[in-house]
TrEMBL record:
One of its GO terms (molecular function) is pyridoxal phosphate binding. SUPFAM superfamilies: PLP-dependent transferases (SSF53383). It comes from Oenococcus sicerae. The keyword Iron does not apply. InterPro entries: Aminotransferase_I/II_large, AspAT/PAT-like, NHTrfase_class1_PyrdxlP-BS, PyrdxlP-dep_Trfase, PyrdxlP-dep_Trfase_major, PyrdxlP-dep_Trfase_small. CDD domains: AAT_like (cd00609). Its EC number is 2.6.1.-. Pfam families: Aminotran_1_2 (PF00155). This is Aminotransferase. Residues 36-383 form the Aminotransferase class I/classII large domain. Keywords: Aminotransferase, Pyridoxal phosphate, Transferase.
């Protein structure tokens, strides 16, 4: 059909044309072809899914669980997710009416945004952050209010929140992520309480993505849902906590009135999750509710190693108390274009990193430590050589 090909601009969605495929995934793919490279690009655990969870999935298949499951999720999964949230974060949700299972947190983001926003509505997104929030909002024709946080240690301050709400009184939602991607920075209980005091006075939903909640290294995770239960749409899941990115299970927890709206969108888009992945996630939140602990200890060791190593190399970074990322400021003596620099480091030092600009903040690089300590040691030694050579060249 040559006419359609010629008229593709007119025949397809303009946002999709402008957005294009993910730059992060494309860069990662490009780096993979470099022989012997150490990839610190990946945002997923390097561990295998715990054995008992895999067995639960196998048993589910053997039991011929091959039919449509309940749209909001199986009773087991919803009950175990509710118990997990209660045990770990002292949150109270009714599994029958206040929790919805989604295809990873990625679906949670998309269906929640679609359920809340009409075209032209405003959503506040502090940056740098996971790029899917803004892309999902823009794809639905919403207007994104970008709020930079680099000058405040990657935390949204009360002053900035207050000013943003004054400037955008019609904003319907704000997205907060704790611990954060790409920074690894998390909000303290006190910071959450102060922000909640402000948010309480406004008709604004708080979309709180807490997918990294099990991976905190200096203090227990603090949840926005605890401080602001009536306004918070909480995301969590098993992707990061249980090394189950490929199973694609996330959860949304929130007030029933809102969950029932989001469930309408979920039904339209997904119908329901596969029974087999829900059986695995039910096991993860149930018998495996503390599975993340051994992985958390390993990540903490790697984080501590990198804090020491990067400091010795003279690099400055946001203090990462959660997730598995470092957000490192590009030193003045290096190329300042993040994409060019990442390509140079990949080629010359054989270390793959992601430019901060892919998360909405130029001048930084993201390093993921979801890889073995041995590989991190190789990466650090290569980086040391690269930085030394670049310093001398200047
Ligand atoms: C903050 C954040 N939210 C959501 C996701 C996606 O999670 P899922 O794999 O469960 O869709 C990621 C993945 O990197 C993330 O960093």
């Amino acid at each position: 059909m040559p006419e359609i090909r010629k008229n593709l601009d007119r025949m397809t969605n303009t946002f999709v044309q402008a957005a294009g495929p993910s730059e992060i995934l494309a860069l990662n793919q490009e780096f993979k072809s470099i022989d012997d490279i150490v990839l610190l690009t990946v945002g997923e655990p390097d561990f295998n899914t715990p054995e008992h969870i895999k067995q639960a999935a196998i048993a589910d298949i053997a039991a011929n669980d091959s039919h449509y499951a309940p749209s909001n999720g199986t009773a087991d999964l919803l009950q175990n997710a509710a118990t997990f949230l209660k045990h770990h974060y002292q949150l109270d949700y009714d599994p029958k009416s206040e929790i919805l299972a989604t295809l990873g947190v990625t679906e949670a983001i998309n269906v929640s945004i679609k359920a809340i926003l009409n075209p032209g509505d405003e959503i506040i997104i502090p940056e740098p952050t996971f790029p899917v929030y803004a892309l999902a909002a823009k794809a639905f024709g919403a207007k994104v209010i970008h709020v930079p946080t680099a000058a405040d240690g990657f935390i949204l301050t009360v002053a900035k929140l207050t000013q943003t709400l004054i400037d955008h009184p019609q904003a319907k939602a704000i997205v907060l992520t704790t611990p954060g991607n790409p920074t690894g920075v998390s909000y303290t209980e006190e910071q959450i309480q102060s922000l909640a005091q402000v948010l309480k006075q406004h008709n604004v939903f708080v979309i709180s993505d807490e997918i990294y909640s099990e991976l905190t290294y200096d203090r227990p995770h603090a949840s926005f849902a605890k401080a602001l239960p009536e306004q918070t749409i909480l995301f969590n899941g098993v992707s990061k906590s249980h090394a189950m990115t490929g199973y694609r299970v996330g959860i949304i927890a929130g007030p029933h009135a809102l969950i029932s709206q989001i469930a309408v969108v979920h039904q339209l888009i997904t119908t329901t999750l596969p029974g087999v992945t829900m059986a695995a996630a039910a096991e993860a939140f149930g018998a495996g509710e503390n599975d993340a602990e051994s992985m958390r200890i390993a990540y903490k060791k790697r984080r501590d190693y990198l804090i020491e190593s990067f400091t010795k190399l003279g690099l400055s970074f946001a203090y990462p108390d959660g997730a598995f990322y470092f957000f490192v400021k590009i030193p003045a003596y290096l190329q300042q274009d993040g994409f060019k620099l990442a390509r140079q480091i990949a080629k010359e030092a054989k270390v793959g990193v992601t430019p901060g600009v892919a998360f909405g903040q130029s001048g930084y690089l993201r390093f993921s430590y979801a890889t073995s300590l041995e590989k991190l040691q190789i990466a650090v030694s290569r980086l040391a050589g690269f930085l030394q050579a670049e310093k001398q060249a200047k």
